[in-house]
Design brief:
Helices cover about 45% and strands about 5% of the residues. With about 325 residues, it is mainly α. The longest helix is centred in the C-terminal third of the chain and has 21 residues. The N terminus is likely disordered.
Amino acid sequence: LRDLLRPRSDMSRARHSSRDIEFDLPGALDDMAGLASKAAIGHGARDVEVFGNGRQGRPAERQSCDVQPPPAASKKDTVVIISTNNPGRLMLFAALNPKLGEVIDWKTPADYGGFGGDEFAKVSPQKLCPVALTAGGLRLFESDVILSYVADKYAPLLENDCRGPTVEARALSALLVRVHDMYISGTNCSQPQFFSNQAVFYKAAMPGPERAARLKDLLKQLDLVESLLLPAGPYCVGDAISFADVVLYPTVAMMQDQAAASLVGSITEGRPKLAAWLAHCNADPRFRGVADKIKAFVDTFLGKAVAGITAKGCG
């Protein structure tokens, strides 16, 4: 009836063409996931972003976008991670709250056949880490969502709830987390050939002009973080650990640990508050232990990635 009543000029429908994208994760990525499993919490260890290069394939028939149903619920919550910076907030929160190891099963993609397998697609609809399978049957993804769930559900077990002692501290912490997730580590597209700002130092597939623009914006966001950190410290928003510390530390430590090898260089140079904060956190074995696991993972591929970027002349 709506079609009959619609003016004739509106009857025609615009035609849309679509081009499918094929996404290949290198076989080496599954090997890296195996490495990560050895370092994973509970095994002895956009979001949101998996390290690995996708490639754009030829136009093909339209792919199904159906989301796979999650596996059956288990008796315990399960969190699937790899040792990179976005899942690193969960690794750090668990390090700060050891009792979480007793109530959560920590796994890696290798436990589900690797990133490219159908079994992992059932676990993670975005095919990214982290993802959580709750005892109640929910499938949660996005690092911040999972962190909020864990902090809320297991509040009685926490030694460090990381919420911040005052309204102002909690608001500032939330702002720092948002800057990180949206403008530093966030990709906002799960398809290949879309990148986050942090990817400027390890994604060889990023075009040169985009790399230059994203590097400029990354440095701007780091300057913004510097301006938001409270001068007295020693943590981001005062004398207590907050979610801002838990979220920022894995990323800042990862970038600074790779300063000599990456094309970004030192991110603490010219940012004294960030440098002092990082040094304070690095002195805590709970923080530094997470950073070391992330560094071990990144070391497996960064040299090759930088060589690829340099070879393309877009460093």
